[in-house]
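User: I'm new to structure prediction. If I give you an amino acid sequence, what do you actually give back? Let's try with this one:
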Amino acid sequence: GGDGAVAAPAVFQCEFEEGLSTVRVIPAAPKTVQRMREKLRKYLPPHPRGQWPLCANILDPVRASIVVEGGAAQILQVLRWFLEEEETNGMPVRRVKNKFSRAEEDVLDGYRDVQLSVLFKGRRGLRWVACPVYP
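Assistant: Good question. You get back a string of structure tokens that encode the predicted 3D arrangement of the chain. For your 135 residues, that looks like this:
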């Protein structure tokens, strides 16, 4: 599994439609092998997504969070930045999961965020990265 090492958060001043605001990019430790095995067991047949390769159901082995201070408007602007800059930033968006669009009782894990799965090419091949955006 991962060794638990995580880089320090990066802090930026970004220009939003309403002016400058702080944005934090917070890397998370990679998912451990044990955690990925737990997730794989969840998708064993007869689960509807229980088809080979089961590892296709693990979309976020490498993760980071982007935290904004300005609420929903800034979350949407960060989302637009990712979608509009796919060609120049080299991280095409493959999935958007918007938990703000769900009723509060339907958010099972208690987190209300927007999660982006972007395709990131590292030195050793392709990686999926889920990138939640929090207010």
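You can read the tokens as a compact description of the fold. Here is one thing that stands out. The CA atoms of residues 43 and 49 lie 6 Å apart.
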